[in-house]
Amino acid sequence: MRFLFKTAYEQDIRLFRDGTTAAWYGVLAVIVLALPVLMSRYYIGEITWVFIYGICGVSLMVLVGYTGLVSLGHAAFLGIGAYAHAFFLQHGVPWVASVALAVLITTACGIIVGLPALRMTGIYLAIATLAFAVIIQEVFTRWEAVTGGFAGMAVDKPVIFGLHFDSEASFYYLCAAILALTLVLTQNLLRSSTGRAWVAIRDSEIAAQSMGVHLPLYKSMAFAYSAAVMGLAGALFAHKIAYLAPDIFSILFSIQLLLLVIVGGLGSLHGAVFGAIFVALLPPTIAILRDAIPAAMANFASATGIGVIGTIGRGIGEFLKKPGVEAGIFGLILVLVILVEPAGIYGRWVKLKLFFSTFPMYKRDSFKRQKNYMRSERLR
Amino acid sequence: MLIYKATELVNFAQGDLLMLGAFVAYMAVAWWGLDYWLSFLIAALVVGAFGALLDMTVLRRVIGQPQFAVVMLTIGLGAMFRTFASVTWGSEIYTLPTPFSGVTQIAGVTLSHQYLSIIAATLILCSVLYVFFSHTRVGVAMQATSQNQLAAYCMGIPVKLIFSLVWAISAAVAAAAGILLAPVTLIDTNMGLAVALKAFAAAVVGGFGSIPGALAGGITIGLIELYAGATMPEGIKNTAPYIVLLIMLAVRPQGLFGTPVRKRV
To answer: How many domains, chain B?
Structure first.
């Protein structure tokens, strides 16, 4: 186990912990840059989804993971960003200005939603954001002059300063760059006094208030920033999906976004990216398994001569083909994550790292969490 | 329909339990040819037992974790139930035959027996629950448990048993609601979600943790929806309950009948 003794302030505020960490991120960057050369177009498209979900994850992570405000309506912000961007593009606004306007509009919406949220905590806030999402979805359906209603709205490929991002690979790089930008920006924000105030609010509102954190201001800021990042993700989302319809931005999508941050691990930006990888790549994985499992089990059955295995394999394949199974698998994973590893993928990663760095001395209890049996929110 | 919330267990799977209840009743009536009332009983019992089982196997493990974990857990469970239902019963829409038919004239208003049965059953259910929670030992124990599990445990309340019981009752009530609702909305796998969202609006408007409040909230939401549907442009009808919900949360977060909250350190 290595200890880092900090001897200067510059060392304390560095973006990366030390040279080794920076080098590892460099390796990651090289891999991300090299992927489009190595992979087929289909997989590049799927990984682009990872980046877009990653931006969504960062947005929700700031709100849920760092400020402790649970939102069940973030798909609405994504939708506002997407529709605003598509609308401005259709009216000939240049790409950068259109994205900026979309982000501004979502930020404004975030602040408006955040206002009543200042008085609410916990489950009430979740329900309020849920109500907001339902209303916004209805607005998308009804406001046909802007959104096209149920008929939908087509979105062209992005053109930035005369550069055309037509191909799958170029859009991949665009999304990767924006995700990297968002991550650095958010990481810097979280290291500043604003980020520390958010974490303080998450851990104890009363303590934060006593320390001089202006609760309404910082909660509004969290909402505004989260909505802004979501608006940015929405703009990319619009390009990626190419055709906007109101029923995309449903409550189920909001829940999926929440699943993303929980599976990834609350309270870490790594978690947002891990969760994005998981959520974006699960549907294609299921699609692949749908054909692979029956085939593999049939092969095994013919090799060993046990016919039952082939039948079971066909059954699994049939089951995975049924509509609605995907949502159930998401639900199952959500339940398992909360029961088995509440800290998410990133929490498991931290535990693994500690296990190897302290090898024979690893203690399970290092990560034991305090349980709270005074759960009533009524009497708090 | 109303969800009762005297236990601070915010259950996002309630709507899906409701759907399960309706399906079980449908199976009992249409496939096994049982009597309506018998199936009603069977469905409530089956889903109630299922709720208790759920608590013992899954939900007990998150006791002591933040409320948020329970919320997410129920959302996940709800998604699993929906998948289970759509795989088992398919995505067709079923109708549940009921013994209530015909109409009655009361003070010049024509009411079908169907709706009368729903109103009557709701009133009975709510009053029974109200008496149960405020006047029986078990009911009071449940309230105590919901407020402070540790203190309740020290007072000799079997907290684990109480939790299972709470889930069983809550699931059974949801199933009953589903059966009552079945003739009106028809049974399909997504019936739970829409109802559950409106029920949340009702619960918040009425105030969490108050049964008369839940009833009043439900009536308010229902009336607002009807009024908005009749007088305002199309599209407002679906969103009106949520707009009211938002206003309500901003103005009076504790609901119509809730007790004011005071913060303690």
So the answer is: 2
> Nearest Cβ partner of A377 from B67, B72, B87?
B67
CB contact under 8 A, A126 and B250: no
Residues B229 and B181 reside in one and the same domain: no
* A293/A295 Cα distance (integer angstroms): 5
pLDDT in tens, A312-326: 777 777 676 666 677
B215 contacts B126 by C-beta, under 8 angstroms: yes
Confidence bin at A224 (pLDDT 50/70/90): very high
Examine the domain organization and report whether B197 and B184 are in the same domain: no
Q: List chain B residues with CB under 8 Å of A372.
A: 64-66
A379 touches chain B (CB under 8 A): yes
Report CA A171 to chain centroid distance, whole Å: 19
In a domain, B211, yes or no: yes
Contacts within 8 Å (CB) and 24+ apart, B244-247: B244/B201, B244/B205, B244/B220, B245/A127, B245/A128, B245/A131, B245/B200, B245/B201, B245/B204, B245/B205, B246/A116, B246/A128, B246/A131, B246/A132, B246/A135
Domain that holds residue B147: 14-189
Assess contact for B167 and B6: CB atoms under 8 A: no
pLDDT of residue A52: 92
Which residues of chain B neighbour A119 with C-beta distances below 8 Å? 249-250, 253
Look up residue A300 and give its amino acid.
Answer: F
For the stretch B88-107, pLDDT in tens is: 766 666 666 665 555 555 55
The residue with tokens 């003739």 is: B183
pLDDT at residue A277 tops 70: yes
Look at B186 and A328; give whichever has higher pLDDT. Answer: A328
- Chain A: residue nearest B61 by CA? A339
> Which range, A57-61, B32-36, B123-127, has the best average confidence (pLDDT)?
A57-61
Burial B139-151 (b: 16+ CB within 10 A, else e): bebbbbbbbbbee
| ipTM of the predicted assembly exceeds 0.90 | no
Domain boundary among B189, B208, B231: B189
How many residues does this entry show for chain B?
265
Q: Does B88 touch chain A (CB under 8 A)?
A: no
